[in-house]
Design a protein that fits this description.
With about 150 residues, this protein is mainly alpha-helical. It contains eight helices and no strands. The chain is elongated and about 60 Å long.
């Protein structure tokens, strides 16, 4: 019964953060470093129900994601994407497909890339809008390429 309440609470927080499925929640937990690896739904529910620290870390990360989604107005989102596109064009990228392709080849850390393969253009734009560090990293990369090619 307590496990069910915990999972309902996590599910509600995930929905507020724009995460619609349990699989997305597990991916989010891995991306945030809360889970070290992909877990099956059964294992993930057991871990979340029994490990208070992991549960609290996940709830905190979901809350931060919810806040970040609230903070950026639509016009600002478009502006962020337009700025990135302009920088990418200066670096020789012609369209969003090429930008996403570069993101799929760009490492954030040893094992982690900006975008997973496959990532659609719309998914990539959401990732860029909702994650300022990734947006900044891509801007830096395109700026360096632009400087090197001009």
């Amino acid at each position: 019964e307590e496990e069910k309440e915990i999972l309902i609470m996590i599910s509600e927080n995930a929905k507020k953060a724009g995460i619609e499925s349990f699989e997305e929640l597990v991916n989010f937990a891995v991306d945030q470093g809360i889970f070290k690896t992909q877990l099956s739904e059964h294992l993930a529910t057991r871990v979340l129900a029994t490990n208070k620290r992991i549960r609290e870390d996940l709830l905190e990360a979901l809350e931060e994601l919810s806040k970040s989604k609230e903070e950026v107005p639509k016009e600002d989102k478009e502006k962020l994407l337009t700025n990135l596109f302009v920088i990418a064009q200066k670096a020789g990228f012609k369209n969003w497909e090429e930008i996403v392709g570069e993101g799929c080849r760009t490492r954030i850390s040893d094992e982690e890339y900006v975008f997973d393969i496959p990532t659609t253009i719309e998914e990539a734009k959401e990732i860029l809008i909702n994650n300022p560090e990734i947006l900044k990293k891509m801007e830096e990369i395109f700026s360096m390429i632009a400087k090197a090619t001009n």
